[in-house]
Amino acid sequence: MANQADETIIYPFTSFNFAVEISIPGVSEQVCKAAFAECDGLEMSLELKTIREGGNNNRQLRLLGPVSYGQVTLKRGMTANFDLWKWFDTVLQPGKHNLRADAEVVMFEENSKLQKERVRFRLSRCLPVKLKAPNLNAKDGAVAIEEFQMAYEMLTIIPAQS
Fold first, then answer.
1. Which pLDDT tens digit goes with each residue over 151-160?
2. Is 90 helix (H, G, I), strand (E, B) or coil?
């Protein structure tokens, strides 16, 4: 039986303590200087190819096909910084259609005042896909939320160094 003092308790990651860092190589190290309220779309999936063998009716072969990646959706309160709007606008200009960014979603420990990292999700070669202004309603006292979506070509996970 192991000594309880030697055991490390591993808690699950919490989804509320994160940051998003977006940079465009050669243009800006940090495009967005705001915290996001929501981040969705960190996903990848493999396409399976199913092959049936002639005469063998009780078995099928499964082969790996190509991988596909999701589309990240970020929602946040409006700030005075319009960097995401500028990036979207720049991509629309002739000759700038291939202005790619790299992004990282960083998850932090739940109770760490120093914001100790648990893991990073690295998104490679991102392109802006959708930019939505907040709903404006004078009678609704809610915080103005905007939505930003970007497609990415590859997702890698980088665990924090202990």
1. 999 999 999 8
2. helix
103: exposed, middle or buried (C-beta count within 10 Å: 0-12, 13-18, 19+)? buried
Task: Mention every residue, 6+ apart, whose C-beta is less than 8 A from residue 52.
Answer: 60, 61
Whole-number Å distance between alpha carbons of 86 and 72: 18
64, two tokens: 């790996």
Cα–Cα distance between 128 and 85 in angstroms, integer?
Answer: 9
pTM: 0.77
Alpha helices in the chain (DSSP H): 83-92
Classify residue 57 as left (phi > 0), alpha (psi -120 to 50) or beta.
alpha
How many residues appear in the chain? Answer: 162
Instruction: Say how far apart CA 69 and CA 153 lie, in whole Å.
Output: 7
Separation CA 150–CA 104 (nearest Å): 12
